[in-house]
Amino acid sequence: MISFVWAESKHHIIGVDGHLPWKLPNDMKRFKDVTTGHPIVMGRKTYESFPNGPLPNRLNIVISRNPDYPVPESVVLLTDKNQLSQYVQPTEEAMVIGGEGIFKMFVDDVDRLYLTEIDHDFAGDTKMVEIDYNKFKLTEKKEGTVDERNIYPYTFKTYDKI
Ligand SMILES: NC(=O)c1ccc[n+]([C@@H]2O[C@H](COP(=O)([O-])OP(=O)(O)OC[C@H]3O[C@@H](n4cnc5c(N)ncnc54)[C@H](OP(=O)(O)O)[C@@H]3O)[C@@H](O)[C@H]2O)c1
């Protein structure tokens, strides 16, 4: 199955200048909890936004149009989404983690959404694709804790395809 994992602020903003527009450690923790142990599927730019290279304890799958894009041996490089089935079993939960073009690529295939909704207006240059929420049911909702390290109000939501 295919899941999306992302955080968006008001107006569906997800990125600015190649990085996240906000700092929200509790969301990073949720991302880690949700994705660890599952393959993560991402665009080349999202991969390059990781400060310390591939994320540990998950198969990192990078999508690029460049078949020669250099990745370490532990990382899988795809040039086409149809190659995904060679690396991920249908029973596994493949976590598509962005960015924009990669969410668009899988929007008709996605079964589950892990959304962090940030109730703040950020400037950005990358937006989440349009999702038809009529096709999904909200199965989990949890208000995030606001504190000195997590200063923006946020809500964790999970949706499953009806
Ligand atoms: N808030 C969140 O949850 C979240 C999640 C992910 C990313 N982000 C943010 O979003 C930004 C990065 O996202 P992005 O949308 O700019 O880039 P991206 O989707 O991560 O990467 C774009 C690259 O993916 C490859 N690609 C895209 N479509 C393809 C296709 N049809 N076939 C083959 N390869 C394809 C291309 O790589 P090549 O150029 O190598 O061919 C393209 O340049 C950053 O600011 C990041 O921090 C935020």
Write a short abstract of this structure.
This protein has 162 residues and is of the alpha/beta class. The protein has a single domain (2-161), classed as Dihydrofolate Reductase, subunit A (3-Layer(aba) Sandwich), CATH 3.40.430. The protein has helices at 25-35, 44-48, 100-106, and strands spanning 2-8, 13-15, 40-43, 60-63, 76-78, 94-96, 112-118, 126-127, 136-143, 154-161.
Query: What's the count of strands?
Result: 10
* Structural class by SSE content: alpha/beta
**Biggest sheet character:** 8 strands, mixed
Shape annotation: globular
Order of helices and strands: EEHEHEEEHEEEE
Q: How many individual domains? A: 1
CATH superfamily: Dihydrofolate Reductase, subunit A
Helix content: 10-25%
Beta-strand content: 25-35%
Keywords: NADP, One-carbon metabolism, Oxidoreductase
Pathway: Cofactor biosynthesis; tetrahydrofolate biosynthesis; 5,6,7,8-tetrahydrofolate from 7,8-dihydrofolate: step 1/1
Domain DHFR: 1-161
Organism: Companilactobacillus nantensis DSM 16982
Account of the 3D structure:
The chain is built from 3 helices and 10 strands, in the order ββαβαβββαββββ. It has 162 residues and is of the alpha/beta class. It has an 8-stranded mixed β-sheet with strand order 5-4-3-6-1-7-10-9. The radius of gyration is 15 Å and the shape is globular. Bound molecules: NADP nicotinamide-adenine-dinucleotide phosphate (NAP). It catalyses: (6S)-5,6,7,8-tetrahydrofolate + NADP(+) = 7,8-dihydrofolate + NADPH + H(+).
